[in-house]
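User: C-alpha cells in, sequence out, please.
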C-alpha cells in the first residue's frame, strides 16, 4: 500500500510545481492554444493560453511510478510498463499534433490519416506485447477474451481479432477523452475520477487475486498491485494539474494530454479485465462521443439539420447560455455518478459471485 500512496503523492507534487514552471516556459516561447473559429465566441479569449500541458503530467506520472518502485525496492511489472508505454506513446502522437498546431498557427494539427496511423501503430504494438510475457502461472497481461468485470468465457477472440478489439477500445477511449477536452478542467477532473476508481479496483483485485487467494471469486489479473501504483500516480498527477487547469485555465493539456489519458484508461481496462465496465466508469466520455456521432448522423440523414446546437455536447449547453463553469461542474457530477455506479456494479458482481 505504501508504494501506491507514495507514487500518487510524488506525482501530485511534481505536477503542482512542474505545471507552474511549464506555464512560464511555454508562454515565453509563445506555445499558445489556437481556437476554433466556429466554436463558442467566449472561447476566443483563451487564444494564446499555453498548451501541451499534458507533457507535465505524463512526466510526473512516470517519475512517480518509478519513484515508488525505487522507494519500495521492487521491480516494475510487465503490465504496468505496458500501460505506461501506451500512455506515453499516445501522448507522443498528441504532442506532434499540438506542435504542428502551434508551428502553423492553426487549430488543426496532424492530418487525420497521419494521426490515425500514429495511434494505430502505438495501439497495435501495445496489444501484441500485452499478449506476451506470461508469469510463473502462465498469466499474461492481456487476455484473448472480451471482459466485463472478468473474462466472458463465450467471447473468446482468436489471433488478430484480439489485437483489433484492443485497437478499437484504445481508439474509442483516446478520442473520447480528446472530445471531452473542450472546457477548462472538464477532461482533467473527469479522468481523475476514473483513475481514482481504478486505484480502488486494482487494490481490491490484489486482495482477491488468484495468485495469492485462490477461490471461486478470485481475479485472474496478472499484476493488480503494480497497476494500482500506476492508477494512483495518474490520479495524483491529474489532481496537481487540475490546480492550474481549472477555470480560468492557466494551461491546457492539449492533445498531448487527452490522447495519453484515453490510452492509459483503455490500457487499465485491458489489464484489469474490465473492458466493458470502462464504458460505465468513463460514462461521460461515452456520452460526449455519442453526441458527436448522433450530430453527424442526424446532419447527414436530414440533409443539413442539427440535433444539437453544437457538438460535442458540452458546447451545446454553452450555446444555450450556460456558464462554462456550470457546464463543467454538472458534467463532473454526471461523471461522478458513472464512477459510483461502475464501482457499485463491480462490487455487486463480487458479492453475488458473478
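Assistant: Sequence out:
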Amino acid at each position: 500500500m505504501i508504494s501506491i500512496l507514495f507514487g500518487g503523492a510524488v506525482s501530485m507534487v511534481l505536477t503542482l510545481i512542474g505545471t507552474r514552471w511549464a506555464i512560464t516556459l511555454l508562454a515565453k516561447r509563445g506555445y499558445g492554444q489556437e481556437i476554433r473559429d466556429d466554436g463558442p465566441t467566449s472561447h476566443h479569449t483563451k487564444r494564446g493560453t499555453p498548451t501541451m500541458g499534458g507533457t507535465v503530467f505524463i512526466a510526473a506520472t512516470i517519475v512517480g511510478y518509478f519513484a515508488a518502485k525505487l522507494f519500495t525496492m521492487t521491480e516494475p511489472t510487465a503490465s504496468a510498463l505496458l500501460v505506461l508505454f501506451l500512455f506515453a506513446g499516445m501522448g507522443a502522437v498528441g504532442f506532434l499534433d499540438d506542435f504542428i498546431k502551434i508551428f502553423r498557427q492553426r487549430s488543426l494539427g496532424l492530418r487525420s490519416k497521419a494521426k490515425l496511423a500514429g495511434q494505430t501503430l502505438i495501439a497495435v504494438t501495445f496489444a501484441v506485447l500485452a499478449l506476451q510475457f506470461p508469469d510463473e502461472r502462465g498469466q499474461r497481461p492481456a487476455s484473448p477474451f472480451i471482459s466485463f468485470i472478468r473474462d466472458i468465457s463465450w467471447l473468446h477472440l482468436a489471433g488478430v481479432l484480439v489485437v483489433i478489439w484492443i485497437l478499437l477500445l484504445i481508439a474509442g477511449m483516446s478520442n473520447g477523452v480528446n472530445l471531452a477536452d473542450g472546457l477548462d478542467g472538464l477532461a482533467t477532473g473527469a479522468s481523475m475520477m476514473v483513475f481514482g476508481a481504478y486505484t480502488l479496483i486494482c487494490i481490491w483485485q490484489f486482495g482477491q487475486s488468484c495468485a495469492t487467494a485462490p477461490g471461486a471469486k478470485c481475479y485472474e489479473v496478472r499484476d493488480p498491485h503494480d497497476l494500482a501504483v500506476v492508477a494512483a500516480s495518474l490520479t495524483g498527477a491529474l489532481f496537481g494539474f487540475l490546480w492550474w487547469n481549472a477555470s480560468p485555465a492557466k494551461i491546457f493539456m492539449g492533445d498531448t494530454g487527452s490522447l495519453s489519458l484515453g490510452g492509459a484508461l483503455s490500457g487499465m481496462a485491458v489489464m484489469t479485465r474490465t473492458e466493458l465496465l470502462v464504458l460505465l466508469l468513463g460514462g461521460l466520455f461515452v456520452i460526449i462521443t455519442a453526441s458527436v456521432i448522433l450530430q453527424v448522423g442526424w446532419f447527414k440523414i436530414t440533409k443539413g439539420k442539427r440535433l444539437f446546437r453544437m457538438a460535442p455536447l458540452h458546447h451545446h449547453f454553452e450555446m444555450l447560455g450556460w456558464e462554462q463553469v456550470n457546464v463543467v461542474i454538472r458534467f463532473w457530477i454526471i461523471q461522478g455518478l458513472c464512477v459510483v455506479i461502475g464501482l457499485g456494479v463491480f462490487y455487486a458482481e463480487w458479492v453475488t459471485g458473478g
